[in-house]
Amino acid sequence: MRYQSRRCAHVGPKVNGAVHERFAVRMVWKQLAREVGQAVERYIASMRSRHSMPGTLVPSWAVPFKPGLLAVAVLAGCASGPSTTPVSTPVSEAQPATPEVAAEALTEQRFAQWVAAFRTSARAAGIDDATLDVTLNNVQLHHRAVVADRAQPEFTRTFWEYLDGVITERRVSNGQQKLLELRDQADAVNARYGLPGPVLMAVWGIESNFGGNYGNVPVFDALTTLGFEGRREAWAKTELMAALKIVQRGDIDPGRMVGSWAGAMGQTQFMPTSYLAYAVDADGDGRRDIWGSMPDVLASTANFLARSGWRAEEPWGVEVQLPASFDPARADQAVRQASVQWAEEGVRTMDGSALPAMADAMVLQPAGARGPAFLVGRNYRALLRYNNSMSYALTVGLLSQRIAGGPPVQGAWPRDLRALTRGEMIALQTALNQRGFDSGAPDGQMGPATRGALRAFQRSAGLPADGFPTEELLRLLQTP
Ligand SMILES: [Ca+2]
Q1: What's the gap in Å between 280 CA and the centre of ligand 1?
Q2: 320 CA → ligand 1 middle, Å
């Protein structure tokens, strides 16, 4: 639960669907935080050019501001007032009063104010002082997390490139090995929640590489930083409050409460609200430990998916072959029916055997009409609740299939195609709109509106309406 779908991977808070949250409340702090955030970005940009850093920030965002330098800067900044020093002036220990350092100090001040205001509201909501002291007294602002959170990468990967990176032979064999080691626990969880062991291993393997990397950012640092930054303040405050409740209940020592920069925690990356709703104490020690107890990790993950609609009697999905007459416009999440009805349309498994029973299934063609096809049902949609990304949910299913000893994808990916850049996606959306196919405001993201508009254009041009963006379609759209 760490990534957001716009990177073709899964980036962002997911369990709660907060990626799509809309914030109606505009608070003064939000505007302040935005201004400060912009100042921080200018500062980082100036540092980057000064030190000839590459255009992309290295992911060492976890380095907090240096308090010592800040203490000097606060004093210097207060003494000198607004500075008119050119931005190109080099920063050095001897010249602490540059605009960049002053901006950094101001940011720290405002961050402290934000935390103090949040603390007041948390106390009013029933969090005791002991909990507030141990969680919020030493939180640190991670300014690079802010930059990463706002990043709009120009280049994205295709689904098959993402799949190649996640489903490696090593990850498959590690998943099989872990399942052997944890067989008794996995069997118990399956009996209780209806979640097969290979699926749980796949989620665990993707979220944290089987516990090898679940992040080491203190959760309270991550969430106060994101709340202060302001773009998702309401969401971050809700998660912070949930995190405080977890500590107050005594489930976990706050020093062990670490995770990703987005606030996702533990071996399978639960957001705090999801933890409160779904975490389970399976080993009976009275604590729900999704960091150190594998029975708790497996049961919590299974409970989340079971409560999200996973059905024990259905598979995650199945790769299928489509009849030659299949209209690719029917490979759409809005077109759902039982496997039996898909079979009547000529949809078959790869070896021609009967389709598994799925009550409410849809066809997915993640690489368009030229690529492989999958039939997925409610269990796929349960995985979307974990992380609202087609790439994520399909990859969990395919990895679980490999861990269970099943085949890799058998259809051929159209590897001659490449993902459109963000700029090209905006051009595609703009051209669609100009031609009267409404794709909404161009944002560089492939969403349902863009897909629908692209399909309408393809139909008008007598092309298979798969809604899959390619360079060729972009050229066609831009040709008068
Ligand atoms: Ca426990």
Answers
A1: 7
A2: 41
Exposure string for 204-229, b = 16+ CB within 10 A, e = fewer: bbbbbebbeebbebbbbbbbbbbbbb
DSSP 100-117: HHHHHHHHHHHHHHHHHH
Q: pLDDT tens digits, residue range 67-113?
A: 333 332 322 333 333 333 333 434 444 555 688 888 888 999 999 99
Q: Rounded to the nearest whole angstrom, what is the distance from the C-alpha of residue 281 to the centroid of ligand 1? A: 4
Question: How far does residue 198's CA lie from ligand 1's centre (Å)?
Answer: 22
Tracing tokens 């107890």 back to the chain, one arrives at: 293
Its pTM stands at 0.79
Quote the ligand 1 centre to 454 CA distance (angstroms): 50
- The domain locations on the chain are 422-478
227 neighbors 413 (Cβ within 8 angstroms): no
pLDDT digits (tens, 9 = 90+) for 117-172: 999 999 999 999 999 999 999 999 987 777 777 777 788 899 999 999 999 999 99
Q: How far does the centroid of ligand 1 lie from the alpha carbon of residue 30, in Å? A: 38
Three-state DSSP state, 239: helix
| Separation between Cα atoms, residue 183 and residue 177, nearest integer Å | 10
CA–centroid distance, 292 to ligand 1, in Å, is 9
User: How far, in Å, CA of 291 to CA of 267, rounded?
Assistant: 6
The architecture (CATH level 2) of 422-478 comes to: Orthogonal Bundle (1.10)
